[in-house]
Amino acid sequence: MLSSNPYPELVKRFANQQVVTIATGATCAYLGDERNLREFLVADEVARWLRRAGHTVIFYLIDDSLDPLNFRQLRVAVNKDEKLIEQYKNWCGKPISQLPDPWGCHESYAAHFEEELLNRLHRLDCHPTLVTTAKLYERGVYTPYIRLVLTRYDEIFEFLRTNFEGYKPEKLLWPLCPHCLYIHETDIKKIDKGLVDIHCHSCEQHSSVTFEELQCKLNWKLDCAVRWAYFKIDAEPFSKSYLEPQTGSFAVAQALSREYFGGHKVLPIQYGLVNMEKKFSNTLLASLPGSVLRSLLVDRPATDFKLTRDLLVTAASRYTVMPGLSYLDFIKQLLPMWLLTPQSLTREQRDLLSHGIAFGRHFLDWEAHLPLPTRESIEVEQPAVLSLVHTLLGRVIRLRENSELTSEQFQQSLSGLIDCLGSHKGPTLHRLRILVGQEQGLPAGRFLFLLPLEYLRLLEYMVHLYLQSVGETVSIQEEDPSALSIVSGATQMRAIA
Ligand SMILES: [Zn+2]
Ligand SMILES: [Zn+2]
What we know:
Elements: H1 7-13, E1 19-26, H2 37-52, E2 56-63, H3 71-77, H4 82-88, H5 109-123, E3 129-132, H6 133-138, H7 143-151, H8 153-163, E4 173-175, E5 186-192, E6 195-200, E7 205-210, E8 216-218, H9 220-231, E9 235-239, H10 249-260, E10 267-271, E11 274-276, H11 284-287, H12 290-298, E12 305-307, H13 309-318, E13 320-322, E14 325-326, H14 327-338, H15 347-363, H16 375-379, H17 383-401, H18 407-420, H19 425-435, H20 444-450, H21 453-469, H22 485-496
Parallel strand pairs: 1-2, 2-3, 9-10, 11-12
Antiparallel strand pairs: 4-8, 5-6, 6-7, 13-14
Helix pairs in contact: 1-2, 9-10, 14-15, 17-18, 17-19, 17-21, 17-22
The chain binds zinc ion (ZN) (2 copies).
C-alpha cells in the first residue's frame, strides 16, 4: 500500500543505487487536458526527491509514435474543426510519426505534439528527455527484439495463454502494410523461414517481407518489456487499472520481461485518476500557477480525486505564492494593485498576474479591475480626514522612494507615522482603505508597501486636487521633511472638531 506521501519510501527503495532511470509514456497524437499531466508530474516528483537525496536521475518521456492515429485523437487534435477532420480523416490508421504536421511547423504530426507536450511540461518545471519510438525502430534499436518475437511467436502466445488466463492478445505485433502504409488493420498470416506474410484489411493486399524489411510496432506490453531492458528503466508510473495483479498490463509486461528480455526490475509508481468537470477542461493551466497545479497533482499521487470548483478554491486558499500570502488572497488583494503597473512587474509576477485573472474569471466569477478611487469616495469624507490621508500618503511615498528599504524597516517607520495620528488613526486608515479598495484586505503596512509607487503618487495627487478645490489648505507639502507633518495635520483636525 502506498501512503499519502510515498516519496520518502520510494527514495529508500533506491538507497543502494546511484543512477536511477524513470520513464513515462505517451502517445503524442493530441495534447489533451490537464488530467493527462499527472503521470509526468508524479514521475518528475520522484526524480526530484531522488536528486535531492543525491542520486543521478535520468527521466524519459517515451512517445509511442508508431501508434496509429485514431479518429477520437484527431478530433481533439484539431479542436473539433469539421473542415480539418474531413481533410485529415484518411490519416487515421497510419502511425503518427509518418503523418505530416497539419500545421506545417514540425517534421511530423507526432513531432508537433511532442513539442507541445514538452512545452507544457517545461512551464510546470518538468523537463524529461524525449524518446520517440519511431526513431528507435528506424535506427534498428528494436531489430533484435522484433527478431526474437518473430522467431518465438507461437511460444510467446502460449506463454501468455498459460500464465494469464483471460488475456489473449489479438497479435504480438502490428506490421505496417508496405502498400498503403496503414498499420491499424494488418494481420500476420504466417512467419516462416525469415519471411513474414502480411494481410492488410485496409487495402486488401497480401505481402511477404523479410524480417529485415518488416516495419512494425510491438504489442504495448511487449514494448514495455523491451524498453525496460533497453533503457534499463527502474521506475515507471502506472494507474491502478494497469497494476491489477492478475492480468494488468504491468503484470503481463513484467512476466514477458522476465521470460524473454532479461527481467530488468521495474518499480511501478501508482498514481490515481483525476476526474474533472468538463467545463474546467483546459482552464487549469491558465488559472493556476505551475507550483499550485503541480502540488494539486503530485502531493497525494495515489489518490483518485475530482477537480471541482470548491476543491480548486480551497487549494488556492492553501497554497502560498509568496511569504504570508495565499494564492486566493493574492488574487483578491494584491492582484488589483499589480494591474496598475504591469510594466514594472517581473516576468514571474506577470505570469502570476495572468493566472490570477484567469482564476478569478473561471472559478470565482470575478473580473479583476483597477481599484482607482472614485471622486465620490473622496467627496464623502471630511476634508480634515482627507488632509491627514494626504499627509500620510506623502510620508509613505517618501519612505518608499528609498528603494533599499526592507519590508520590516518600512513597517517600523510606518507604525511610527501611524502612531502620530493618535485618535485620528481610525478614520484616516478607514478612508485610505476605501480609496485603495482594501476595505477588508491586507494590513495597512502591507498594502502601503506593496502598492505601486506610481499609484500612490496618483492617489496623493487626486486627494491634493480635491482639497484644493474645496479650499482646504494643504498645509503639509510632500517636500516637507519633518516627521511632525502628520502631527500638524492632526492638530488641524482637532481644531475642526
Ligand atoms: Zn508543428
Ligand atoms: Zn494496405
